[in-house]
Amino acid sequence: MRKTIAVIEGDYSGPEVVREAVKVMKKTAEVFGHEFVFKKVLMGGEAIDATGVPLPKETLEECLASDSVLLGAVGGPKYNDVPKEVRPERGLLALRAGMELFANLRPARVFPQLAAASPLKPEIVAEGIDFVIVRELVGGVYFGRHETAVVGGQRQATDIMSYSESEIERIVRVGFETARVRGKKLTSVDKSNVLDCSRLWTDVFHRVAKEYPDVEARDMLVDNCAMQIVRRPSQFDTIVTENLFGDILSDEASMITGSIGLIPSASLGRTSCGMYEPIHGSAPDIAGKGIVNPIGTILSGAMMMKYSFAMQEESAAVETAVNAVLDEGYRTADIFSEGCKKVGTTEMGELIAAKINE
Ligand code: IPM
Ligand code: MG
């Protein structure tokens, strides 16, 4: 198969991790007899530097015309003081909206080899951590009206959170479909004791639940969920939640797995063209030193093969390669522990790529 992939390297550490993911994907294509064509496009800080805007029109067009999109990470201190309309993050949000990527899948899974890297007590980790957060990605407060006005002599800021039934229903369905092929347990996370958006959300959730009698469905308040994720993460299989809650909970979930550098994500819409990125940011503090962990981005490439290209075997081969390299004791600095072999970004990518043909 021939697939075209739009590549957004991004800012700071972004290009370093993307380079390794591309390396591993090229090797996978070679071994399995595919052709992956990578096409660099600009978004975020790099686009602001080159064109003045975070999402040039051509980038959105290229992404829509590709079979899939691979992204590093955008943003960083250089862009902290630019007007909000042209912040790098704006480019990311506009791209998610422009491609209608309403479903964001963020797995939280502990690699057995790295259990000691989790900040949770060993007995809690031993119960197992393997769940996925399905986050609504193009609605809610992220896309409501944002305004700062002067009212009564002082500044007053407003951000509107809004959800329609159909927006809720389509993401809740992704939650049920995801749970159905996993552990058949779905938790809908909300703040229905306070927010109308959450009351509507929960209502739609329980209506749709009737169509999935094989999936155990429950709802949970977001504050309680934040607590349960560190108290007993083994209770979760699939979580479905709105945009802002999903943003916050997915960072929490990634941390308990040991390192945010390990976690991939998939953003999916109505077509098979999705966007795949590690869930970590551009990590400006460690950029350019050759030490960032490329595994989250490499596994994002594996998710792309599975969800956008229906290449199950190829995707599994990448996961197996990552596991094999970890089994052999190779670690980047963020997951390093005594007795392991410390490697840099490039070496980690090369080790994983080399394992693909075995
Ligand atoms: C994420 C990030 C983004 C978000 C930022 C960079 C806008 O935190 O993908 O989780 O909030 O969605
Ligand atoms: Mg986030």
How does this model look, in words?
The protein is an alpha/beta fold and 358 residues long. It folds into two domains: 1-108 and 259-358, Isopropylmalate Dehydrogenase; 119-256, 3-Layer(aba) Sandwich (Isopropylmalate Dehydrogenase), CATH 3.40.718.10. The chain contains twelve helices and 14 strands. The chain has helices spanning 14-32, 45-51, 57-65, 88-98, 122-126, 165-180, 196-209, 222-231, 243-256, 295-307, 312-327, 345-355; strands spanning 2-10, 35-40, 68-73, 103-109, 130-136, 146-151, 154-159, 185-190, 216-221, 238-241, 264-268, 275-278, 330-331, 341-342. The strands form three sheets. The chain has a ten-stranded mixed β-sheet, with helices on both faces. Helix 1 (14-32) crosses helix 10, helix 1 (14-32) runs parallel beside helix 12 and helix 10 packs antiparallel against helix 11 (312-327). 47% of the residues are buried. 3-isopropylmalic acid is lined by residues 75, 89, 92, 247. 3-isopropylmalic acid binds at residues 75, 89, 92, 247.
